[in-house]
């Protein structure tokens, strides 16, 4: 401890804030992750708590971290030896960094990124999120320069050493920048070459499928078409591709599954936009979907639904979505809810729609890839990358709505 440290230390408030008030608890975290209400707390209540209590406390979290480290540094060195400080720093570098990945920021570097690079990337991504600047910002050099001085600032009698260290740092950074530019340029050239060849390959597949009255905007991305057709993406001979499709693709099933995918997409759009006097249909269906996953096959009393703030509105929507296919009240192509004697559950088709809507980010592309390939001469179909759950959803829902996808 030195006298020079006293002014800085004296400025630190030793009274303790309550850290738990500014930390996101389990309900806060689950809401941020899923967007769903937690227990008895509604979305608006959770948002208000996040804004007014948790987020407003973030500056204090930084202040507490800075002050705690400063006080430990100022205090008796018996608290942390030099080796213990090094060990603590290594443990900090092992903290999982997720923010940069969530925002899609990539290191794009030669070789594997080090722990220090990942930690620095996370710090930069955090500041970038809060500062909201994606282009060059005049204050960024000040921020980076302050970080550099924090790392390498030395007493004035050691100015030459400080200069040498910072010069070496800038030389290394310039090399890394050049290395990154060259790496990205090479990657882009390779990507462009592959993309152009894939686009031509996929266009030929679409042209062939069009001859079988199958018109699609894009080739289903969930399939490795090179492997399934047993040809490479550099193959640009239409007749060869056509012959391979005839030998490997169950055209009839493909047509029916494309129609099913389009039907599900239309029903998802309808459900998301269906509202009857402020009661959203998707909230009711989401509740029943959660129940079907936890307790398959069980029914729920209408009055017990978490969304039942106004039971008459809920009953109206449930009655509509449980109407028969020939009833004008049914807003979707097929029944979504099975309702009987005030008890309700999702139909098999309702489960398929709910899976796509709530668990798969409204992605229905996978539906049209279900078991459409023959395995060469023994006609044993392949499943591409589909999960058992997805195969079961297709099987049960098509059986329920009477869509025979296996007949020729």
> Segments where pLDDT lies below 50 for 5+ residues?
376-383
State mean pLDDT (0 to 100 scale).
81
Number of strands: 5
- Strand % is under 5%
Seen as an oligomer or otherwise, the chain set is single chain
Q: Give the strand order of the largest sheet, numbering strands 1, 2, ... along the chain.
A: 3-5-4
Rg over CA atoms, rounded to whole Å, is 30 Å
What string, H for helix and E for strand, traces the elements in order?
HHHHHHHHHHHHHEEHEHEEHH
* Total domain units: 3
Taking the sheet with the most strands, its summary is:
3 strands, antiparallel
What structural category arises from helix and sheet content? mainly alpha
Distance between the termini: 86 Å
Shape: flat
Number of helices: 17
Helical content (DSSP H or I, runs of 4+): 55-70%
Summarize the structure.
With 408 residues, this protein is mainly α. It has helices spanning 6-10, 19-22, 26-34, 43-54, 58-74, 82-93, 99-102, 115-131, 140-152, 159-210, 225-229, 238-248, 251-273, 281-294, 311-321, 348-359, 388-401; strands at 275-276, 279-280, 300-301, 337-340, 343-346.
């Amino acid at each position: 401890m030195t006298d020079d440290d006293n002014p800085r230390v004296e400025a630190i408030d030793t009274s303790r804030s309550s850290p738990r008030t500014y930390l996101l608890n389990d309900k806060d975290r689950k809401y941020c992750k899923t967007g769903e209400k937690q227990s008895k707390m509604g979305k608006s209540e959770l948002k208000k708590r996040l804004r007014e209590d948790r987020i407003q406390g973030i500056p204090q979290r930084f202040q507490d971290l800075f002050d705690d480290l400063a006080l430990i540094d100022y205090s008796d060195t018996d608290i942390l030896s030099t080796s213990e400080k090094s060990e603590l720093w290594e443990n900090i570098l092992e903290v999982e960094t997720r923010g940069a990945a969530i925002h899609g920021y990539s290191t794009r570097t030669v070789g594997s990124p080090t722990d220090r690079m990942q930690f620095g990337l996370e710090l930069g991504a955090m500041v970038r999120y809060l500062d909201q600047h994606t282009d060059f910002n005049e204050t960024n050099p000040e921020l980076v320069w302050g970080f550099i001085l924090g790392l390498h600032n030395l007493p004035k009698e050691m100015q030459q050493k400080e200069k040498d260290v910072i010069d070496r740092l800038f030389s290394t950074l310039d090399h890394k920048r050049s290395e990154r530019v060259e790496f990205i340029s090479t990657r882009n050239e390779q990507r462009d070459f592959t993309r152009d060849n894939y686009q031509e390959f996929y266009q030929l597949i679409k042209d062939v499928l069009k001859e079988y009255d199958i018109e699609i905007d894009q080739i289903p991305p969930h399939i490795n078409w090179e492997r399934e057709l047993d040809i490479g993406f550099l193959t640009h001979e239409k007749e060869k591709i056509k012959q391979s499709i005839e030998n490997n693709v169950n055209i009839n099933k493909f047509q029916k599954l494309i129609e099913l995918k389009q039907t599900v997409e239309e029903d998802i759009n309808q459900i998301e936009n269906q509202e009857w006097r402020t009661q959203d249909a998707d909230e009711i269906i989401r509740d029943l979907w959660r129940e079907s996953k936890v307790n398959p096959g069980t029914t729920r009393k209408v009055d017990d639904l978490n969304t039942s703030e106004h039971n008459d509105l809920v009953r109206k929507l449930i009655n509509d979505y449980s109407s028969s296919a020939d009833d004008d009240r049914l807003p979707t192509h097929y029944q979504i809810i099975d309702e009987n004697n005030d008890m309700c559950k999702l139909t098999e088709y309702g489960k398929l729609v709910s899976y796509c809507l709530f668990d798969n980010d409204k992605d229905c592309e996978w539906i049209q890839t279900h078991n459409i390939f023959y395995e060469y001469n023994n006609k044993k179909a392949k499943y591409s990358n589909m999960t058992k759950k997805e195969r079961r959803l297709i099987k049960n829902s098509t059986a329920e709505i009477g869509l025979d996808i296996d007949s020729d």
